[in-house]
Amino acid sequence: MTHRSSPEPLDQALTLTDEERQPCEIWTRVMGYHRPVSSFNRGKKGEFADRVTFSEARALRD
Fold first, then answer.
1. For 8-36, what is each residue's pLDDT tens digit?
2. Which of 30, 32, 40, 44 has the fewest CB atoms lying closer than 10 Å?
3. How many domains does the chain have?
4. Is residue 32 part of a domain?
């Protein structure tokens, strides 16, 4: 376990340079199992980019 000698406040924003950042790997469920989007071919990546989210509204009763 590592201890810091002078702890920074938790509300202080952490700023990273582009070199310090690491890419986020996106996974999706395809045909019942999970796969990383990075392993898709060009066509499947295009289909993934075209997906839209929706919210289902509750039906009104008469």
1. 666 677 888 989 988 899 999 877 899 99
2. 32
3. 1
4. yes
